[in-house]
Amino acid sequence: MMFRYIVLFLLPIAIRCENASNSSNTSELHILVISPFQHVLSLFKSDIVDKLMNANHSSSDLPDELHCTIQEIQSSLQQTTLANQRLFNQAALHVSDALESISRMENETTETEILLNELNTTVETAKEDVRLAEIAAKKAVELFSYAIDTYRAIMYRNRYRENDYGGDYQFGRYNGQHHFGGYSGGNRFPFHTGLHSRGTNCHFDVRHDSLYKANAKAMHEADDKLKKQQVQLKNELVKYRSMESQLRNISEQVMELNTTLQEQQTIKIMTEALNEDFQMVANRLKPFSSSSKRLLDVLMYILDYQSIVELFNSAYNKLLTASTIESTDLELSREMMNKTKQKLIYLSAKLPRMRYRRKQFHRLCAHQ
Ligand SMILES: *[C@@H]1O[C@H](CO)[C@@H](O)[C@H](O)[C@H]1NC(C)=O
Ligand SMILES: *[C@@H]1O[C@H](CO)[C@@H](O)[C@H](O)[C@H]1NC(C)=O
Ligand SMILES: *[C@@H]1O[C@H](CO)[C@@H](O)[C@H](O)[C@H]1NC(C)=O
Ligand SMILES: *[C@@H]1O[C@H](CO)[C@@H](O)[C@H](O)[C@H]1NC(C)=O
Ligand SMILES: *[C@@H]1O[C@H](CO)[C@@H](O)[C@H](O)[C@H]1NC(C)=O
Ligand SMILES: *[C@@H]1O[C@H](CO)[C@@H](O)[C@H](O)[C@H]1NC(C)=O
Ligand SMILES: *[C@@H]1O[C@H](CO)[C@@H](O)[C@H](O)[C@H]1NC(C)=O
Ligand SMILES: *[C@@H]1O[C@H](CO)[C@@H](O)[C@H](O)[C@H]1NC(C)=O
Ligand SMILES: *[C@@H]1O[C@H](CO)[C@@H](O)[C@H](O)[C@H]1NC(C)=O
What we know:
It contains eight helices and two strands. With 368 residues, the chain is an all-alpha fold. The chain has a two-stranded antiparallel ribbon with strand order 1-2. It is rod-shaped and about 150 Å long. It starts with a helix and ends in an 18-residue tail after the last helix. Mean pLDDT is 83; it is low at 1-22 and 165-201. Bound molecules: 2-acetamido-2-deoxy-beta-D-glucopyranose (9 copies). Residues 54, 56, 58 line the site of one 2-acetamido-2-deoxy-beta-D-glucopyranose (NAG).
């Protein structure tokens, strides 16, 4: 799905450059490629075209100046082309790295989501276990208090019958910390067993009663079970939350990687598009770089719309379309080039140095 960005061409750049142009890496593109290229274009316009159009037969320094301007343009174009190529290779590498990392992290996301789902089931099961344990514990308390009520009933019956109080019996106080309250009321009462006393006080210890013991044991066990289930739920929830935060981390990392990807895609697409034009200009200028060429011939070639200027315009328009630069009217028309070439021919008749070979210019140029 990310490959869409490689295929879609100029419009996406235009959209994404606004944001990406602020990143350090697109600013690298600006510093190393876009600004130097703009400089080349403005040199071309002001120091060749405008200068020629404004010159006359008494502009004796003109050939030397043009010689230097052409040198500067050539070397600047060469550096720009190299930098552009380097940035393209770099961006292509970053794009493939980012794509790979994103694919790896998406894999990790899927795996984490599966684990999270499993933990969710575990948590839900643990919740259900707690719920059941709560019911069981509540029931055990009810049974226990029912047993006590039964003993109390027996005690009262005997009291009425014999009006004979036995010693207070400290009924095994249940002190469990149930969420719904353990049995805690009325557990201190005199106890009397009418059944075996034959008129005498009998200190019957309820704790030795098997029913009581069974109920108390069940209650304690149910409570222990509940506590265990609660601890289990807590542990499962901790695991769940940790897995959740891991998933969030991964998705944050994917988002960061995606931002990098978008930036690098922008650079890759831009440098690739510029490279087409730069390479063609370089190839076409190659035969005219030789120092044995006449300045006039080099100028005539450079000013030729179809050979060179059209490619300058093409690169310039790509930058404009991508909103990487604002229009500063550096486009050169076919008509303007025709006029400039005519003026150049006229001047070359008046300024013999125009016909010098490049190696005959010994003046050190300012930019060197
Ligand atoms: C730039 O990116 C931020 C988020 O990184 C976004 O909120 C903002 O809308 C974007 N601006 C433009 C002009 O695309
Ligand atoms: C870059 O971002 C800073 C703040 O983050 C902002 O002030 C500046 O205007 C932005 N520059 C460009 C060229 O977008
Ligand atoms: C972006 O450019 C900066 C310096 O210009 C460099 O340090 C950094 O590694 C580059 N990052 C990417 C992802 O290309
Ligand atoms: C030639 O141009 C220069 C400056 O561009 C100007 O000063 C001079 O008057 C012009 N000479 C003629 C003959 O037009
Ligand atoms: C994604 O995970 C599957 C199985 O978990 C594995 O076979 C595959 O190689 C992984 N892909 C990547 C890009 O890590
Ligand atoms: C488990 O998933 C269900 C359904 O998606 C959800 O309602 C529940 O809140 C999840 N459990 C936890 C602990 O997030
Ligand atoms: C999430 O990322 C932060 C820093 O990026 C890290 O400190 C933390 O341990 C991570 N958490 C998980 C669950 O991976
Ligand atoms: C990356 O961001 C783009 C939008 O900027 C979005 O369409 C795409 O789905 C994102 N990809 C990933 C893997 O998040
Ligand atoms: C420019 O000159 C060429 C011939 O040198 C001619 O074919 C073309 O029509 C001219 N174009 C303009 C716009 O003057």
